[in-house]
Design goal:
3-stranded mixed β-sheet, globular, 3 helices, alpha+beta
């Protein structure tokens, strides 16, 4: 169970979002993971990525691009 989002997790998320061409300035990544996690477009246009506290993190990151595309294409 993930208790906090550290720089290690943020860098893994950035590896996905950088590859997708998303600006880091348009991302909001809370440092407190929650269950369930979520990816959503916020009213201000930024993309919020809440890491799932109960998911296996490497598995979570491997499916992140699909969740981001679903939120963006929405």
């Amino acid at each position: 169970m993930l208790k906090e989002v550290t720089i290690r997790e943020i860098e893994a998320i950035f590896a996905v979002t950088d590859r997708m061409g998303l600006s880091r300035e348009e991302l909001v990544i809370p440092l407190l993971p929650r269950h369930p996690g979520r990816v959503r477009r916020m009213p201000n246009g930024k993309l919020e990525i809440v890491v799932d506290s109960e998911a296996d993190f490497p598995e979570y990151v491997s499916g992140l691009e699909d969740r981001i595309r679903a939120a963006v294409d929405g």
